[in-house]
């Protein structure tokens, strides 16, 4: 790759976004361990401040476990309208530097600043100015990773958190990933990381030592992706028009359920919520997924892809019922169910993309 072809990618990631907004808006919370979520017995942590993370409190953790780890933990109910408004402020700042913005969530995005429309000398200076403006205009801190591709930029943004930035240059990219734990790699989820460790792959160097044939044999279509990232390679472009890939809804029951009729009522309610969004937006997906969380907090999913797009609420309801019924007889009572529709289109980005973490029943754990 010549100097003219080298991209300049920034991954901006807000620091403990939801919790930081709450601490910003309520001075009494500053410097204290805060969890955004509901502290009730069946609540879940949506986000944790850095003061809470010291105690091992993490997002998606059941509130009962979080409170055991940190007795002084303060739960604050989420205010998603506020988070969305702040996110819009942040994205307006991004837009002053580049039109090539790929949002990943309310609090993180990729920016391609190769064109350098503000005539700043380097991507490093651009990232520093963006972070300064975010602090001045929102009162919040952000971290940034700068590199020549998206994979490395995302890894780099974690390297100086919170309120810092780090760059991985083309000269250092291939060797920089070698000592990193494989579980830190974007696109390697807990299930895949465990499989890799069973195959003797614990670090980037271990992954690089495996041939493309070996990786394809054990990981199928994801093999080329893993082969590339072990060498610091990622050809994906920043896509400002990235389509939404799924829509889902989930609910936690007031008590753990074992009665199929009650569980199915919950599944149907979630299917109706998802279809309401599909109906409003005109989106039609081909894949339905049902998620369940058992009493012991293990998570499982079942999915089915139709031959053509799911075209009616009744079709989604019937697919969702078939999926939940495929888990019978239940091994344990269920505390949560969810329904998701995905596979909205067939367009793909250029280059290999990180593999979607497919989960078979009993594969995933939470909390």
UniProtKB/TrEMBL annotation:
- Quote the catalytic residue positions: 108
| Cofactor needs | Mg(2+)
Question: Which Pfam family is an annotated match for this chain, by its short name?
Answer: IMS_C
Q: Which GO terms describe its cellular component?
A: cytosol
Put simply, this protein is called DNA polymerase IV
Listed InterPro entries = DNA/RNA_pol_sf, DNA_pol_Y-fam_lit_finger_sf, DNA_pol_Y-fam_little_finger, DNA_polymerase-Y, DNApol_IV, PolY_HhH_motif, Rev_trsase/Diguanyl_cyclase, UmuC
Gene label: dinB
Chain segments carrying region Disordered: 348-367
Every UmuC domain range = 9-189
| GO terms for biological process, alphabetical | DNA repair; DNA-templated DNA replication; error-prone translesion synthesis; SOS response
Provide the residue positions that the database annotates as binding Mg(2+).
13, 107
């Amino acid at each position: 790759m010549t100097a003219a072809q080298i991209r300049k990618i920034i991954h901006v990631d807000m620091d403990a976004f939801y919790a930081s907004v709450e601490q910003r808006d309520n001075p009494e919370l500053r410097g204290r361990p805060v969890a955004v979520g509901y502290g009730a017995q069946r609540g879940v942590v949506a986000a944790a401040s850095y003061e809470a993370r010291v105690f091992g409190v993490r997002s998606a953790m059941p509130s009962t476990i979080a409170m055991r780890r940190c007795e002084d933990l303060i739960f604050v109910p989420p205010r998603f309208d506020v988070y969305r408004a702040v996110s819009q402020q942040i994205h307006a700042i991004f837009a002053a530097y580049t039109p090539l913005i790929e949002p990943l969530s309310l609090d993180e995005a990729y920016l391609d600043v190769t064109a350098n429309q503000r005539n700043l000398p380097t991507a490093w200076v651009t990232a520093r100015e963006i972070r300064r403006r975010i602090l001045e205009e929102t009162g919040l801190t952000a971290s940034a990773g700068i590199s020549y591709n998206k994979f490395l930029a995302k890894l780099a943004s974690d390297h100086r958190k919170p309120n810092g930035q780090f760059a991985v240059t083309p000269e250092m990219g291939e060797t920089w990933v070698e000592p990193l734990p494989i579980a830190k790699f974007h696109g390697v989820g807990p299930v895949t990381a465990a499989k890799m460790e069973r195959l003797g792959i614990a670090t980037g160097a271990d992954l690089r030592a495996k041939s493309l044939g070996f990786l394809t044999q054990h990981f199928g279509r994801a093999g080329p992706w893993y082969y590339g990232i072990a060498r610091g390679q990622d050809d994906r472009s920043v896509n400002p028009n990235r389509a939404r890939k799924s829509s889902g809804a989930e609910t936690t029951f007031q008590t753990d359920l074992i009665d199929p009729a009650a569980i199915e009522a919950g599944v149907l309610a979630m299917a109706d919520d998802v279809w309401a969004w599909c109906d409003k937006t005109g989106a039609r997906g081909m894949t339905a997924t049902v998620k369940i969380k058992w009493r012991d907090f293990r998570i499982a999913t079942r999915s089915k892809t139709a031959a053509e797009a799911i075209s009616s609420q009744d079709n989604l309801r019937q697919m969702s019922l078939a999926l939940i019924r495929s888990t019978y007889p239940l091994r344990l009572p269920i505390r949560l169910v969810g329904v998701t529709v995905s596979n909205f289109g067939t367009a793909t980005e250029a280059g290999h993309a990180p593999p979607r973490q497919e989960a078979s029943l009993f594969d995933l754990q939470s909390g």
